[in-house]
Design goal:
Blueprint: H1 11-31, H2 33-42, H3 45-73, H4 76-81, H5 85-139
């Protein structure tokens, strides 16, 4: 009997490895949620950039794991049915945990994005206020007054 891809010899191992890799990557993304949240709430742009950069690498690897699962997703029932009973239970448990974990990571990312949007709006308002004060100060300056800093040589 010939098997069509992805159900070629060794497909069970490839499926298990892809699910395990996706689960491990989601766990790492979830572990970084607290670091990301602290950086966002503190407004620490350097730390936000570091955490987001690290998480982007994890997301790229998660995309690769998802691509490895794609051939099986079109016939998931056949894939699960081809596993031993213990393997079916393990695969179902892992898949359920993976979905739950991915949903919690996505929810945390959405929440942090909203916080960053609010901070960006606050910063824009603050910068707008600085510009208004600067414009008002320039409006009341006498004509011909120096526009930049004035340096004085006090030593001689």
């Amino acid at each position: 009997m010939t098997m069509a891809p992805p159900f070629e010899l060794g497909w069970e191992r490839r499926l298990a490895e892809a699910v395990q890799e996706a689960h491990a990557l989601c766990e790492r993304l979830a572990a970084d949620i607290d670091a990301q949240r602290r950086a966002v709430e503190a407004g620490d742009a350097e730390e936000i950039g570091r955490v987001i950069g690290e998480r982007a690498g994890l997301r790229d690897r998660l995309d690769e794991a998802a691509r490895a699962l794609t051939p099986f997703s079109s016939d998931w029932r056949r894939a699960i049915a081809g596993l031993a009973e213990a393997g079916m239970k393990d695969a179902a448990d892992r898949a359920e945990k993976l979905v739950t974990l991915a949903a919690s990571v996505a929810a945390a990312d959405r929440r942090d994005l909203e916080v960053m949007k609010k901070k960006r709006a606050e910063l824009a308002r603050d910068l707008g206020g600085v510009q208004q004060r600067r414009s008002a100060a320039h409006a009341y300056r006498p004509a011909g007054a120096p526009t930049g800093p004035v340096f004085q040589d006090r030593e001689g």
